[in-house]
Amino acid sequence: xxxxGAFRGPIGLAIHVSFYLLLAASTARYLTYxxxxxxxxxxAALVLVLAALYAVVVVLSRRGTPWQPWVWPVLTSWVVxxxxxxxxxxxxxxxxxxxxxxxxRRLAYPVVGALAVxxxxxxxxxxxxxxxxxxxxxxxxxxxxxxxxxxxxRENAERERLLGELVDAKSRLAETEREAGVLSxxxxxxxxxxxxxxxxxxxxxxxxxAADELWDGPxxxxxxxxxxATAALRDNLTETRDLVHYLGSPDLGTQxxxxxxxxxxxxYVPSAQLQVVGDPVPLPAEVExxxxxxxxxxxxxxxxxxxxxxVGVTLTYLPDAVALDVFDDGAGFDVHEQSGHEPGRRSxxxxxxxxxxVEALGGTFGVxxxxxxxxxxxxxxxxxxxxxxxxxxx
Length: 394
What we know:
The structure is a single chain. By secondary structure, this protein is α+β, with helices and mostly antiparallel strands. The protein folds into 2 domains: about 5-170, no CATH class; about 255-394, Heat Shock Protein 90 (2-Layer Sandwich), CATH 3.30.565. Helix content is about 65%, strand content about 10%. The chain has helices spanning about 5-10, 10-35, 40-65, 70-85, 90-100, 105-125, 130-215, 220-245, 255-265, 285-305, 350-360, and strands spanning about 275, 310-315, 320-330, 365-370, 375-380. Strands 1-2-3-5-4 form a 5-stranded mixed β-sheet, with helices on one face. Helix 10 links the parallel strand 1 and strand 2 (about 310-315). Helix 2 (about 10-35) runs antiparallel to helix 5 (about 90-100) and helix 10 (about 285-305) runs antiparallel to helix 11.
């Protein structure tokens, strides 16, 4: 329905007040000219019914509940009242506003036109003579009311649309700023880890390796323990560097998804190749983010465990989804015996983390591998997935 906001706003208040003022003035005029006649009881009853029905419309519209069906009883009682007492034809003008607010333009035009003709005839009947200005005045006034009020309604609708777009734009801006803040914080943490933990681990590893080279005498238990510590430290240094690379991932906001995936996999396997199948289409930010993280995790596993000569990434755009495949010709493993956390891997970077990320977006995840036959990590995510709940750990 049109004009509900205007009918409830300041314009609506003015319409309601004018209706009751005109109703009271028309009642006074009727008593002045006719007195308390036999018809007075019927007229008074209709005045009370009309006032009550109009009040129902006002109350319901203020509450925001459906009020338009009540307009028809108001119009019916008004027509009967004006037919019995033409003095009440002066209340036609608020009635025109009521019809314009309650009905669509396609229905409001003929209803207001019919009521305007009826009011003009009644105006002429109580004036005692037929005059064209008397007949045309309600019709012209009704047309002006419909057109003017319709313009107000359209302007209100346009203002509400613009306000809605402004709210959406502010929401998108806030989300963009939040994502930029998260990215900036990730980059800062990556730099801090690189400048402190990674450098410290590298220094400690160099000292242990130098001590091993300078060790005199036969092998001893102490030297064996030092070599074990050196191996463990080297593994931890590798994992720390992986974490630094993971946090400082390519920016999806400045390049295409394919370029970001290729940059991500090259951070671990420089010789890897990327193939894009289908026409690229815009994807939700959470889907692109998930594909990037899966690619990083899979490429990290390949570099650390696969000993592969060939690594490839395939990004496929399907009609309602996007598919990602990361494959290699490396050592492979027994999928049934592998829980997803490879030996030495940090919790959260293995296959279970990839699976959880994909399934959280309504997608499917699978791994195909066998000892000596390479590995394929496959994920398929709907193109309109919902975002993960805020605060889900990566």
